């Protein structure tokens, strides 16, 4: 073990032990209420800070997935035998099971995902908030009575799918784990969830803590491994009745195809190329600060990152100048440092993707205003995947950097001349996840927001997200919705029940008999 990485390995081992997960044996899955080792090939995790080996574990494999589905099936039946009110009480207790473990979970996420510790602390609180919100929905999923034109009483119930399969990404593993788990079990389902193979442990920790608080054993199962093995076993298992995926459009297509082959529906929360529109009457101090937060938070590794800044030509130069100056003041450093505002990119593959896109843009005429390389002044051990906040101007809409998701701390700034021009540019991608409008004209703000093909639109703000509000996109950003009441509905199926109330039933031959 290289001396530079000894501290990170020791810290990870200590954190896992604190949570009851032994790092010296690869207990990487949570199945039927127990930690279980994988049965496949070894997977090596690298430290985002140093680029050096951090820990190894084994791919779960098809047999572990089958065990997880079986456990979820049995636990789901037990879960649905409880009253809705009791399920709500148990979900609330599960949320509070995190109490006292917040700092350990935040530190674990920071070490493995390379996220600034202060960001991870906020995400732990969001996990509890999500479970508390959906706990309140357990006994409020009302049906309805349809006034059918017959002697029947017709009522509609919303019933769970049974067992759902979920796959979450590496950029926010703890957040997206809870984002998907909470509505699924509130709707009455059992779950088998596969995190990214690069960030496996926080999802296991959350499932372990919550099930030990009173959820049925096996209601939440976490299987860890790579897509071609563990992922394929999950999406192809006959016991999975719905698939939910958060990640790239390329992988999302494969997930949807796997589900379609078995006639299993899916929810896809995919990438974005979100447009942040600044009109010339905007409060520029707020707009520049919002533009920075929109792209440089989490090192740009966010599906809703405001990666395209569209600025009205009258204020284009001054906004570019302010952005470049402000980007240089962002504190890039070790995730463990309380002062760090932006940490490293999570993995080598993503780092190479980002830097290659920057270089390609420059070769096609884009002008580098700042960044584009490793920041200076980093600690000696920071030899990993660090990239300075990067701003590019002179970008045209046909360039790849303006059309494809970079998923890194890279902002392209493009001018527009009119409201019509801004809307056209904003909608000129195959993505449709989010967007923002900065203006002091309220009529224009609402008018432009209504014309943006984006699932979430902010006005004079960016990245305000809450579990109460639906989230999702159009086009290559996916379909279906997470969070809010709409997210809950994704996990149920409407069941129509007909009860004959006539003194003597009249059953006639033919479809639709008795109507009219």
From TrEMBL:
<dbReference type="InterPro" id="IPR016161">
    <property type="entry name" value="Ald_DH/histidinol_DH"/>
</dbReference>
<keyword id="KW-0560">Oxidoreductase</keyword>
<dbReference type="InterPro" id="IPR016163">
    <property type="entry name" value="Ald_DH_C"/>
</dbReference>
<dbReference type="InterPro" id="IPR029510">
    <property type="entry name" value="Ald_DH_CS_GLU"/>
</dbReference>
<dbReference type="InterPro" id="IPR015590">
    <property type="entry name" value="Aldehyde_DH_dom"/>
</dbReference>
<comment type="similarity">
    <text>Belongs to the aldehyde dehydrogenase family.</text>
</comment>
<dbReference type="InterPro" id="IPR016162">
    <property type="entry name" value="Ald_DH_N"/>
</dbReference>
<feature type="domain" description="Aldehyde dehydrogenase">
    <location>
        <begin position="38"/>
        <end position="497"/>
    </location>
</feature>
<dbReference type="Pfam" id="PF00171">
    <property type="entry name" value="Aldedh"/>
</dbReference>
<protein>
    <submittedName>
        <fullName>Aldehyde dehydrogenase family protein</fullName>
    </submittedName>
</protein>
<feature type="active site">
    <location>
        <position position="269"/>
    </location>
</feature>
<dbReference type="InterPro" id="IPR016160">
    <property type="entry name" value="Ald_DH_CS_CYS"/>
</dbReference>
